[in-house]
Amino acid sequence: MQDHEEWESYGVSQSSTESRPDPHNPHPESSGIFPRESSAHNTHHSVHSDKLTYFRDGRRKIDYVLVCEYSPLGSRSLSSSSHGSTSEKKQVKYENWRSTFMSNLVRAGLHMEKEVIQTVNKKCVSFTKIHAPWPVLCQYAEELNMRAPLQANVNPVLNWSEKLLKSLRIPNLMAQNVPNKPPDYFKGPFKRSKIHKYVGSDNTDTFFSNAERIRIVYEIVSTGVYGEKKKGEVGVDRLVEEGVFLSAFPLHDGSYHVPKDYSDPLNARQVLYEYWARWGRWYKYQPLSHIREYFGEKIAIYFAWLGFYTGWLLPAAIVGLLVFLYGVATMNTNQVAHEICTIGESITMCPLCDKELGCGYWKLSDICGYAKISYLFDHPGTVFYAVFVSFWAVTFLEYWKRKSASLAHYWDVMGFKDEMERPRPEFAARAPFQKINPVTGVNEPSFPKSLRKTRIVAGMGLVFLMISLVFIFILAVIIYRVLVSIPLFQNSALRSFASTVASVSGAVVNLFLIMTMSILYEKLALRLTSWGKSCKNNK
């Protein structure tokens, strides 16, 4: 376990909730040696009140957490013996991977602190807290071409409805005064040589947002090597997939709950909970600036689209309601329904099935109720609504393009391109060799084309089988509607509603089948993606 001792001496501080020593580190206090920042950087640190998201010193923020589980007694026996069962050898391999991975993270400049607890089943769960110091943040911010604030933008961005109501001097019930609004800046590419020109560079604690810190740390742990690089033994995602770590995640900014006697300023999570993630705020403007600051641009643009789409559904819903009310108002004037309900009493209709099945002759007036209900959804107003929705959809798409471009410019991500996606951990774990990607020039795990083609063909056969299953379900729903409508038509009291009941119940059955198949499709797609040897998730 030499590698494990090495990364401990590089700067991992440990503590345990148990009095017994941790088998991975018999002297936890002796390993508390950290690569410190320069005194110039330390002058900006202050002890924070919310210690749950900081190291024990209350100064260094926890940017990422790695969780693993091990057996104390097993660890001692494994370290003293090179022989054992298959599970013991697997544990030794996992421990070597963990120690090598941790050593490489410390060499990359990350600070670590370990907390160990003992579970009911006598196993130890280790939580390794990771902190990225200022020099590491600056180095990777420049490598990732992140953008830094140059000058404050004092021009507020208003919604069109906010502008309209303000110009008409009408009180805006949708507006809300959200505290701690993130300032807006004009930004430029981050350069360490120009650090003094950026706004807020004198405070190393707050210069990088939590989302930016998490992005940098995730970049480091995603590229950290724990085994043979040629075999793709790289990154925390594969370690979690292999079971070396139970989980790997960043932390929220403390608790979202706000006590009644709380006097400190709200953290970002509390602000979002109080002014956004509550049922009572459904009619309020979304605090997109706060969402972007906390979750990043990708999540913020999703909720921007969701709010924009919901707002645009309002005119479509109003027009649809007016069309429906028009149908209700003119239902008694419909000539077809009127004749079915009046003259239909003297018109005898042929049986819908054989006499042996119980079907007999019936009056046209028996479907009077069905004719009136059908008119509500099939009258001249619905034709107008169909045309309206077509124009509404085109207009919505064009205005969303305008809105998204405006947000991209406002958030300074107009020319942003997605980062190069890494191979999936499952793919990298099973790939027999590596080859250079002709597009990116990066050495990536690869499978033989012959094996991949064989599995793709087999996967296509399975897809066609699922398509056939869909057609079988459609035919089954049609047969179900026929079987349900026959006994209803035999009952004179239910005859007028037979078609409606059959259609509605058939739709419910169809919905159930669709929901069931969607769950099956999702699981099948994941299995086919892994089995078909797709390198990237977006493929």
From TrEMBL:
Annotated GO CC locations: plasma membrane
Keywords, ordered alphabetically: Cell membrane, Glycoprotein, Membrane, Transmembrane, Transmembrane helix
Ranges of residues in domain Anoctamin dimerisation: 54-288
Keyword RNA-binding: no
Keyword flag Chloroplast: no
InterPro entries: Anoct_dimer (IPR032394), Anoctamin (IPR007632), Anoctamin_TM (IPR049452)
Protein name: Anoctamin
